[in-house]
């Protein structure tokens, strides 16, 4: 602390010399060189980042497109217009019954409702497998009838649950 005090008190002794005339020019030249190296370093980093971003977007696009192409979903409507009508009928029937189930004003055991929805989810998973089978065997009547039966089972389950809830209300 004493050294600092001595320096500040004798500051005028240190200010006696001036730098050379070209000192500021040399300093400015060094700064320009340093800015160029920083700029080139940032340019390199930006170029590498740009390459990584572009390549990852490209790869994701290619992989995503292949996934979509490989997972084309075939439905009953792809077989014939008649089956398309059947599919639309059952889909709307299932949706209507689900809405009716959700809007019932009766007190229902949550575990029972969860069990119903789990069963419907299993039927939905089964239906997706049938869709894949239909994709491999388009027009196979056994698969088509299994898909229709899947919808019919869903409708029957929902009908039974709704009727039981209404009876116990």
Itemize the secondary structure elements and their pairings.
Elements: H1 2-9, H2 11-14, H3 23-70, H4 81-103, H5 110-136, H6 141-167
Structural write-up:
Helix content is 81%, strand content 0%. It has six helices and no strands. The protein has helices spanning 2-9, 11-14, 23-70, 81-103, 110-136, 141-167.
Count of helix runs: 6
Q: Which structural category do the helix and sheet elements fall into?
A: mainly alpha
Average pLDDT figure = 79
Q: What is the H/E string?
A: HHHHHH
Quote the beta fraction.
Answer: under 5%
Number of domains: 2
Please give the radius of gyration in angstroms: 38 Å
- Shape from CA axes? elongated
| Helix content class | over 70%
Q: Mind summarizing the main beta sheet?
A: none
In terms of per-residue confidence, which ranges show pLDDT below 50 for 5 or more consecutive residues? none
Strand runs, count? 0
The end-to-end span amounts to 89 Å
Q: How would you summarize what this structure contains?
A:
With 169 residues, the protein is mainly alpha-helical.
Features:
169 residues; mainly alpha; 0% strand; 6 helices; 2 domains
